[in-house]
Amino acid sequence: MDSKKKSDRLARVRENQRNSRARKQEYLQELEQKLATYQTEDRRKDIEHRLALQKMEAEN
After folding, report:
1. Would you give the DSSP letter of residue 2?
2. Tell me, what DSSP letter sits at residue 20?
């Protein structure tokens, strides 16, 4: 393999690695956002559940 082909190949490999790291970072950010959304929803549902229990206990 001559020097030009080798350097072109290495450049492509480096670019692919950069792209892969960028995709991974984007995916991790999406997962973190989903986690935050699910945690917020969980807290909201927990509060609703507690209020419903309190209301039920007050009625009895």
Report:
1. -
2. H
- pTM exceeding 0.90: no
Tell me the per-residue pLDDT of 8-59, one tens digit each, with 9 for 90 and over. Answer: 999 999 999 999 999 999 999 999 999 999 999 999 999 999 999 999 999 9
The sign of the dihedral angle between the CA atoms of 31, 34, 36, 39 is negative
- In angstroms, the Cα distances linking 28 to 16, 34, 35 are 18, 10, 10
- Residue 38's Cβ-side half-sphere holds a number of Cα atoms within 13 Å equal to 6
Residues 6+ apart with CB under 8 A from 1: 9
- Taking the CB of residue 24, how many other CB atoms lie within 10 A of it? 10
